């Protein structure tokens, strides 16, 4: 039975980033993925990367290969109500608050780097179950079994890995995503517009704008059924007149929910990315939190003496990540529940809060640093 030091389940951006962070560790690493090798290169999504994520990708040597669109200003407002706030990179002496990259572009850069490092990826290998023993984990695949001293689950759900204490919350919202072409330039500004149906995000992406339009499931059905021109008009009315859209491309949709493991580690197993927590896209923290988790785990494993799956090693990682992880989960969940309603007293309070955020630099800096570096607010 093939035995490795570390098996990473999932060769998407999260799993590949962990492998690359450990390329000089001396560990015998294997990535296994249910999809064919290179499938992540065709991921149509876009990712919002924080400034802190840029620093991590620079350390890994990936950043120069990415075609990233900088976000220099973030405009936060609520539909039909007073109150707005601006977060500007110049206030922090940074070139950008964050960046927008194509998920496929990031995956391609990571895949190329792993090939150059000689770290293998075994495609077309869905893992049906994993069983932890005293000194190894056995992974069952369709065509055989593998063993590892540590397994990092970076994607999907695997039989035997489900946590009975898993926390789930269905927001009763769907995200309709598309790319729109603006009439005027976006000036590297991102908009987060809160509406009673849920947040609407407009992100600069090349010369276009990436749209994340939150709606109820029934409303999402209607938005997906409309023709391009009708949907563009609906989007324009929903967004307002700060930016005008000339056209809108193909749309896709997915349900929005909160799903996370209170404890991201188990016997010789650690969960990362969507396997550890699935967040609402408000504030764009999903991949950024995952990347901070990956970097922290890599540093703990590099400092570990001997067994990478030892209980004290995994406990150290969980302890180091507890504050940021719980803080980010609560931050995004709180934003969704606070802003996705039309209750009049709350609407007035939200407007006052946005005014205060704009007028009080310490409060604004707190939010900005959390978005750039997480709940611990440092790189």
TrEMBL record:
| Originating organism | Zoogloea ramigera
GO BP terms: ubiquinone biosynthetic process
What cofactors are annotated for this protein?
Answer: FAD
Q: Where is the FAD-binding domain?
A: 5-331
User: Member of which family?
Assistant: Belongs to the UbiH/COQ6 family.
Q: What is this protein called?
A: 2-octaprenyl-6-methoxyphenyl hydroxylase
Q: Name one GO molecular function term.
A: 2-octaprenyl-6-methoxyphenol hydroxylase activity
**Matching Pfam families:** FAD_binding_3
Signal sequence region: none
Q: Which Gene3D superfamilies does the entry link to?
A: FAD/NAD(P)-binding domain
Please give the InterPro entries that the UniProt record associates with this protein: FAD-bd, FAD/NAD-bd_sf, UbiH/COQ6, UbiH/COQ6_monooxygenase
Q: Write out the pathway annotation from the protein's UniProt entry.
A: Cofactor biosynthesis; ubiquinone biosynthesis
* Entry keyword set: FAD, Flavoprotein, Monooxygenase, Oxidoreductase
């Amino acid at each position: 039975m093939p035995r490795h030091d570390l098996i990473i389940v999932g060769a998407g951006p999260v799993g590949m980033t962990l492998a690359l962070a450990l390329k000089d560790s001396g560990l015998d690493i294997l990535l296994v993925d249910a999809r064919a090798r290179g499938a992540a290169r065709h991921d149509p999504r876009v990712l919002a990367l924080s400034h802190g994520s840029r620093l991590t990708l620079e350390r890994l040597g990936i950043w120069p290969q990415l075609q990233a669109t900088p976000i220099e200003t973030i405009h936060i407002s609520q539909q039909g109500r007073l109150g707005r706030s601006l977060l500007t990179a110049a206030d922090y002496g940074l070139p950008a608050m964050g960046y927008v990259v194509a998920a496929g572009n990031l995956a391609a850069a990571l895949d190329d780097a792993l090939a150059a490092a000689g770290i293998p990826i075994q495609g077309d290998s869905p893992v049906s179950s994993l069983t932890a023993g005293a000194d190894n984990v056995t992974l069952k695949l369709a065509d055989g079994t593998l063993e590892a001293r540590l397994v990092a689950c970076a994607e999907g759900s695997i039989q035997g890995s489900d946590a009975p204490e898993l926390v789930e919350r269905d927001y009763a919202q769907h995200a309709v995503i598309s790319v729109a072409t603006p009439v005027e330039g976006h000036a590297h500004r991102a908009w987060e517009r809160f509406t009673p149906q849920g947040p609407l995000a407009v992100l600069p992406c090349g010369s276009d704008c990436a749209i994340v339009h939150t709606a109820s499931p029934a409303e999402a059905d209607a938005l997906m059924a409309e023709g391009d021109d009708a949907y563009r008009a609906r989007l324009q009315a929903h967004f307002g007149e700060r930016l005008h859209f000339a056209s809108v491309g193909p749309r896709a949709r997915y349900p929005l929910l909160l799903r996370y493991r209170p404890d991201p580690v188990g016997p010789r197993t650690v969960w990362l990315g969507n396997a550890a927590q699935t967040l609402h896209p408000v504030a764009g923290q999903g991949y950024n939190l995952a990347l901070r988790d990956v970097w922290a785990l890599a540093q703990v494993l590099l400092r570990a003496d001997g067994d990478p799956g030892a209980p004290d090693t995994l406990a150290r990682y969980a302890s180091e990540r507890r504050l940021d992880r719980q803080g980010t989960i609560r931050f995004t969940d709180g934003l969704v529940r606070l802003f996705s309603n039309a209750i009049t007293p709350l609407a007035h309070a939200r407007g006052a809060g946005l005014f205060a955020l704009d007028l009080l630099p310490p409060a604004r800096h707190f939010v900005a640093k959390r978005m750039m570096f997480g709940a611990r607010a440092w790189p």
